[in-house]
Amino acid sequence: MLAPRKFLRRRKKEEVFKDAADEAEQKSWRKMMKEIEESGSAVSILRTQRSRRESLPRDLVLGTLVRFKQLKKWNLVSEILEWLRTQHWWDFSEMDFLMLITAYAYGRSRQYSKAEAIFRRMQSLGPEPSPLTYQIILKTFVEGDKFKEAEAVFQSLLNDERSSFKPDQKMFHMMIYMYKKAGNFDQARKLFRQMAESGIPRSTVTFNSLMSFETDYKEVSKIYDQMQRAGLKPDVVSYALLISAYGKARREDEALAVFEEMLDAGVSCHTNNFVGVNLTSVSYATMLSAYVNASDMDQAEKFFRRIKEDGLKPNTIVYGTLMKGYAKLNNLEKVMRVYERMRVQGVEPNQTIFTTIMDAHGKNADFGSAIVWFKEMSARGFPPDKRQRTSFSL
Question: Domain residues of the chain, as ranges?
Fold first, then answer.
């Protein structure tokens, strides 16, 4: 029997160049990129490059910008673009302005005011902002909590007869999200109706947005039915929202019926990832929450077993939901049993798990153990929230 290798050396991928000139160009560009990253500034390096040749090739500059954008090094992107704005040899296009707005909006310091200034400059001096630019600036305003500015831009597009285009579906979606974020649900509903009146097609995403801020299960169910009557197929988010609404109302039978409908529709077979979260797993966790909300831990345990039978590996969300159910019933022993099961399966705890355990010990007046778990949470790099700092006199 062959002894196992201690390690496997990966073969270095062989690079293919068009010719010797292409090889020299690529290696020169990489050297320049390394110099920029090491110095932390781009303009001085680009100036040096320009002094060595008659001009900087447009492809080289664009490649540099795109690469730093991919790396999310927005400070370098904005530095290069601001320099290019002053260069007579560079035709500063709308896409350059758009990238500059994005760089200011998503950079480390979130310079929303600078992003807005670039947009206002485009409005007054050109080039005229395109629908894509309006989509980006609306998103920038909403993420920066500049709701009045977003509303003003949207309404100007909607009501200005001189405008060459009107708000599209993505702009309506962003504004509905904004009103939800601001807690102005009536205005969000008004925009939802206005989409139909303006002939803007409403998608599953539109209906999901409306369902997401309704608290009454009857209203959520009504919107869900309306979506189906419009000929739209619910996705995993739609089902999760309806299951959650029934679960919060302690109507676990209706929640289970919707869950089974989701499986019959084959929705769970699709890969639905959003910010690294598998939405199918979230749907199972949502159904589990329905039993937990009803304090029916027997059914919750049965459904937990079903998750594994259906071929899914319970994640932190699922284990955390089950632990919260037992914590709600003040059953510390069961909380800790679920935690041990989770660790045996190799699932790492998160801050929510630690908080549930600390609260469970606190309810049982076992403050010594609560402090031990608090220290364990801190040691794993999870900072305590304000309530926890107050509780433990930090």
Answer: 55-167, 323-394
Q: What is the pLDDT along the chain (394 residues), one digit of tens a residue?
A: 344 444 445 555 667 778 888 888 888 889 999 999 999 999 999 998 888 776 788 888 999 999 999 999 999 999 999 999 999 999 999 999 999 999 998 877 789 999 999 999 999 999 999 999 999 999 999 999 999 999 999 999 999 888 889 999 999 999 999 999 999 999 999 999 999 999 999 999 999 999 998 989 999 999 999 999 999 999 999 999 999 999 999 999 999 999 999 988 887 544 443 333 455 677 889 999 999 999 999 999 999 999 999 888 999 999 999 999 999 999 999 999 999 999 999 999 999 999 999 999 999 999 999 999 999 998 998 887 767 666 665 4
DSSP character for 214?
-
Q: What are the tokens at 192?
A: 């939802």
Residues 344, 338: Cα–Cα separation, whole Å: 10
Write down the pTM of the prediction.
Answer: 0.77
- Domain 55-167: CATH class, spelled out: mainly alpha
Work out the angle between the directed axes of helices 204-212 and 185-197 (0-180°, nearest 10).
160
